[in-house]
Design goal:
alpha+beta
Length: 187
């Protein structure tokens, strides 16, 4: 594949995934606000999945609640860092890493958008067992961030295996004596 074409493909993947993730998050939050205008209002989708309209003034599991500026600044720095990393690594980046960066960027910007505009994040995906909430309520941006983290872990697992394999190959090649060296060189 042409190197320039690969560069464009990895960048297109990253930003396309980011835009799609952000758009799904934005659309879903607005749909929930319209369908369930009151906080704590719920709608059963499946016995194990409810839509429950809540807001979160903090980060995951409401940590740092009320620290909107701090959380916004942190999310902004993460988003900016991802964009800088994308621009610096686009020549040698794999498609898997491009997908990971795209999901991370889309999710980070989705929640950052809510924090900057409203001072809070809208959450609505409510996992249930026997009618009882079993996990903190979350949104599409949170899912996007977790997919990005999962893909990043896979990337590093495969990258480490690839690096380990090439190091093993080099060691094996260095140890093997060549036939013609043993005849001409007594050492």
């Amino acid at each position: 594949m042409n190197k320039i074409r690969k560069i464009y493909i990895t960048s297109i993947i990253t930003y396309l995934i980011a835009v799609i993730s952000f758009a799904l998050d934005y659309w879903s939050k607005n749909a929930i606000i319209e369908a369930l205008p009151n906080l704590q209002q719920s709608k059963i989708i499946f016995p194990w999945l409810w839509f429950t309209h809540v807001v979160n003034y903090g980060a995951a599991w409401s940590t740092f609640s009320g620290k909107t500026f701090l959380l916004s600044a942190f999310a902004g720095m993460i988003s900016l860092g991802l964009i800088v990393y994308e621009r610096l690594s686009f020549q040698k980046r794999t498609k898997l890493l491009s997908f990971s960066i795209g999901f991370l960027l889309g999710g980070a910007i989705g929640n950052l958008y809510d924090r900057v505009l409203y001072g809070r994040v809208t959450d609505f995906l409510d996992l249930r067992y026997n009618g009882q909430n079993i996990w903190p309520i979350f949104n599409i941006a949170d899912i996007s961030i977790n997919i990005g983290i999962g893909l990043l872990i896979l990337y590093y697992i495969f990258q480490d295996n690839k690096n380990q394999t090439s190091e093993d190959d080099l060691e094996d090649e260095e140890i093997k004596p060549r036939d013609n060296d043993s005849k001409t060189n007594p050492l």
